[in-house]
Write a structure and sequence with these properties.
This protein is mostly helical. The chain has a domain of 31 residues. The protein is built from two helices and no strands. It is elongated and about 75 Å long. The relative contact order is 0.06.
C-alpha cells in the first residue's frame, strides 16, 4: 500500500512539475518552484550526509579475531 502511494505521488509530482515548467500550470511561480526544489534537494543531500556520519560515528568497531594457530605475541 505504501509503495502504491509513493508511486502515485511521484508520478503526480513529476506531472505537476513538468506542467509548471512547460507553462501548462500557471498558478505556481516557476522561479519559486525552482528555488524551493534546489533548496529541498540541497537540504536532503546534507541530511543524507549527516545520517551517514552518524552511522559511521556510532557503529561498533570491528573486533579482530585470531586464528587458532597464531599466538598473541609476535
Amino acid at each position: 500500500m505504501v509503495g502504491a502511494i509513493m508511486l502515485m505521488g511521484g508520478l503526480f509530482g513529476a506531472a505537476m512539475y513538468t506542467g509548471v515548467m512547460v507553462g501548462l500550470i500557471t498558478f505556481v511561480d516557476r522561479d519559486a518552484l525552482i528555488t524551493w526544489s534546489v533548496y529541498m534537494i540541497s537540504v536532503g543531500l546534507m541530511l543524507v550526509i549527516a545520517l551517514l556520519g552518524y552511522v559511521a560515528l556510532t557503529a561498533p568497531t570491528p573486533q579482530h579475531r585470531q586464528s587458532h594457530g597464531e599466538s598473541s605475541q609476535s
